[in-house]
Specification:
CATH class: Alpha Beta
Number of domains: 1
Largest sheet: 4 strands, antiparallel
Number of helices: 6
Shape: globular
Strand order of the largest sheet: 1-2-3-4
Helix content: 40-55%
Structural class: alpha+beta
CATH superfamily: Zinc finger, CHC2-typedomain
C-alpha cells in the first residue's frame, strides 16, 4: 500500500472526526517503548532512554546503528539522513507523509483508542 493510499485511509476515520481525542491523550496512552517495538519489530529494543533503532525506515539504510529511538520520550534521530522528531506522532507523520490530524487518527485507529 502506498503512503498516499495509507494517508487517504485515515483521513475519514472515526478518530479523525472525534473532537475529544486529543494528542496528549494519545501520547499518554501509547507508550513509546511499546510503539517502537511494534513499528520496528526486528530491532531488539531493551533499555530505557536512547536505543539503537536498527536500520532507518526513512531511507535505504545499510548501516545499522545510525538510527536511534528514545523509549521514554518517543524521539527519534537518524545520523545518516538527518530524519528526526520529538515523539511518536512525528514519527508517523514522517514515515507515512501524513498531516498531524491524520497521524493522530492512524495512531488512535491502530492502537484501538476509538
Amino acid at each position: 500500500m502506498t503512503s498516499q493510499r495509507k494517508t487517504a485511509r485515515y483521513c475519514n476515520t472515526t478518530a479523525a472526526k472525534k473532537q475529544n481525542m486529543s494528542a496528549d491523550y494519545i501520547k499518554q496512552t501509547i507508550k513509546p517503548g511499546d510503539f517502537y517495538r511494534y513499528e520496528l519489530p526486528s530491532t531488539p529494543l531493551k533499555k530505557q532512554g536512547w536505543n539503537d533503532g536498527g536500520l532507518c525506515p526513512f531511507h535505504s539504510d545499510n548501516k545499522p546503528g545510525s538510527f536511534r529511538v528514545n523509549l521514554l520520550t518517543g524521539a527519534y534521530k537518524c545520523f545518516s539522513c538527518g530524519a528526526a522528531g520529538g515523539d511518536i506522532v512525528a514519527f508517523i507523520m514522517a514515515l507515512y507523509a501524513m498531516q498531524f490530524a491524520e497521524a493522530l487518527a492512524k495512531l488512535a485507529d491502530d492502537w484501538g483508542l476509538i
